[in-house]
UniProtKB/TrEMBL annotation:
PANTHER family: SENSOR HISTIDINE KINASE, TWO-COMPONENT SENSOR PPRA. This is histidine kinase. The keyword Phosphoprotein applies. The modification 4-aspartylphosphate is found at D725. It comes from Sphingobium cyanobacteriorum. It catalyses: ATP + protein L-histidine = ADP + protein N-phospho-L-histidine. InterPro entries: CheY-like_superfamily, HATPase_C_sf, HATPase_dom, His_kinase_dom, HisK_dim/P_dom, HisK_dim/P_sf, PAS, PAS-like_dom_sf.
Amino acid sequence: MIQPRSRLALPLLILAALASAALVLYAVGSWALAAGFGATILTVATLLAWYRHLYPPQLSDREAIPDWTVARAAADASSMAIAVTDRAGRLVCASDLFGEWFPGYPTPPAVTADTALVESLSAAARAAWRDGDARHEGMVQGALRLDVDIARTGRTEDYLLWRFTPVRQPSALDDVHRFLTGEAGRQLGEAGIMAAMIGGEGRIRAANGAFLLRAAGRIDANITGRDFAAHMRVDDKGRLFLAREEQGGLPLRLLQVPLKRAAQPNGAQASAQDGPMLLLLIDEPAGGGGTSALSYIETLLSLLPFGLAMADRDGRVLFLNNAFARAAGLKPGEKPSYPGDLVVREDQAAVADAVRRFAVGPQMSGDIAVRMRDQPDESTALSLAGVRGLGEAAVLLSLKDNSEESKLKRQVAQATKMQAIGQLAGGVAHDFNNILTAIIGHCDLMLMRHTPGDSDYDDIQQVKSNSNRAAGLTRQLLAFSRQQTLRPQILQLPDIVADVSTLLKRLLGENVKLDVTHGRNLGAVRADPGQMEQVIVNLAVNARDAMPEGGTLHIQTYAVPAVKVREMRQQILPAGDYSALRVSDTGLGIPPDILAKIFEPFFTTKELGKGTGLGLSTVYGIVKQSGGYIFAESELGRGASFVIYLPVYAGADAEQQPVAMPAPAPRAETWGTGTILLVEDEDMVRAVAERALTRQGYKVLTANDGEQGLEVLAGPEKIDLLISDVVMPNMDGPAMVARARHAYPDLPVLFMSGYAEEQLRKSIDIANVAFLPKPFSVSQLAEAARDALATRPVAG
């Protein structure tokens, strides 16, 4: 549409050109000069107009403000919760569904009280600002499980778009659908049983071939979405028939099995009475006797994979199928007299009352929460439905086999607990490393003033020896918390087992036999060979201690392709190709109540003074930091097995041979000259490092944090080497070095930290930077300073 100003532009332009030409003609008196001047004005104006068409002016700040009402309307039309935050972290727009799932409209990432989850979402947000998008999977919000997608958006990419999408959980409806349309549904049809699943609205969702053939005339008929009642008819005697069979059909007996619907996105749960149903139809036996019908129904229920049982009006159990027995934890051949015998004492009265209510009156169905006798700490849903016309049977009971679900819950809870313990262990190890640095450093300084034979020399050596033992414990804590420094290589698990086999034979002794077998076609893995050897040794030593009378230690390596992983249906282990290492023994086994705690640090069943409780926790940390998974299996009296799954390395260098580590060069003199700036927030560490470097001949300037360090750098003293802690208050080491490098691009830097280099790799990924882990001795600090100074460019 042409704007009014655009319509007036051309006449005004021509008028301006004529007026300009007239002025030139009046002043000069030349028609040619006046015409040329007017034509020039028209040409320049035309070019300016064309330039504005090609490069339109930028919108003003007022015009660039987004219309959030339109964005919110679009968000409300989707099935996900959507929020938008700006650079300042403010919530500028959110959908109504976001307010329903997160009451009060909290500003992402602070949408939950779970501190660890908020930190994970914050990390994902930072990644989205940096990379453009990020994702966090498996966020739990009430009854919901959500995937969070974060994307940088906007005209100038100054907003974050948060999308919370519910993850659809598999339900009983999916199982029934697969059952009816698969081989089991065909076998039901061959037995003369028609089966269909209908929704709460009465429409058909799935059916087996027998129902399709008799109700629609074709086994491949598509009747999904049609009204189930339209395929049935009832005569004047109340008997049920298929509508298509008209007068020649046989009367049918209908059995209804209520199916529990999945939770709605808002967390609500529909009642079983108006929910989906599994309908089973069989021809009425001759004579229509209830007893024969009940026998026929029992045969039918025994074929179904769902836990089903029947009880009479007095609550006595008449029948239960194998799936119900497994879900109830019954032994083979065991049959309870009453449903209440399956639950704990406190729930028996509630179960008996529910059975009586559903046995009389109108047909209805519902659920009650009970605690099973063999699992008193977990609630289970017991579904009940009243049935009529089956002789003595009056109530149909359904119990879901949730053993796998309970196992998954325990695994998730254990993984969450291990993560929290790991974070705590890593923090403790960091602080402890600072203390040990000061103790070991002061011991070294005192040893410089004493010689062997002095009265204090042996005492100082003892203190240093115990400090080094404590440093070993912190390294194990860092291994458990997945914060140690790894040197990964491309390797084969059989090669690692072969390298450590000789050592294992000496460790195991004469009473324990070592049996090693290797599978074929194992893929290469990427791991630290030294750490993997420590894993095998720790597991072997534990197995030896579990076999005091002797036995056999089996070590097996084998390939686990992705197809096999899917067949395992292991929720914790993602689908993929793995190389597995299994270490098994024939010892005493691990009790179930201890099995869930074995990877926790300082947990041990050995006698006092015979174990630190860090062996298996170290194994756990090394495996997890290498990207693998470890599972423990045990049965009392039949030994224990530890299975490690390491993902097959698929990089371009997967076929390369491990590179042999060169022998360390002999150490040169550690005395030196120059000025060193030492930045450390811990007073005790700063003091001992300053004294150690001063004794080596250096001039040392100190600072408490990064800001003070920059002030010293800006002073008159020329700094030859910067030694800094990584994690400090106010301004940390990497931030200080990044600013210092603008003015001093060639300044060598030596970082030191109680955290592992691997954990700090992203923050200290700066050119010409060395790293020294805490705790360190005086000689190690001197050598690190000498090597860092050697990287200075030669003037010249």
